[in-house]
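Archive record:
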Amino acid sequence: MASDKNLDFEKELKELTPLIKKIASNFITPSITADELFQEGAIGVYEALKKFDSQKNTKFSTYAYFWIKKHIMKYVEKEKSKYKLNDKLFQNKIDENPKEEFTSKSRISFPETMPKPEKQVLDLLLNEEKPLIEISKILNISREKVRQIKEMGLRRLKIKKTL
């Protein structure tokens, strides 16, 4: 019976792939790739399969839409609020007028003691707003390695994670 559920999941995932991609396309940001959002959408399909009641006269795709979107939005919110930047990080960027907002030309500067790979990754991620996959191509290293370097750099900057 467990293999039947796997077959149902694979079948439904294949059928709902265009729906997942459509929903995910609305939430892609420089730091969140389409693949990451697709994975969250797939988790939504899995949860919808577990909770779907065929007796309620509803199409599965209609029911799954809610769970797909819920998981994608939850992931986006988690990523947005994951790091709270210290005010010290931006201290060098504040003009004489404290009410003035940062412009797109404002750049985050990093400590001189920070290792070069961490500076490169964080500069490309925070200042250039490049996604991890693009940074991995620029630096010719794997996306996972870029993610690890990013995490080390953020810890070094004492950026607080929220859970």
User: Anything to note?
Assistant: Residues 84-161 form a domain with the Arc Repressor Mutant, subunit A fold (CATH 1.10.10). The longest helix spans residues 2-25. The chain has two domains: 2-80, 84-161.
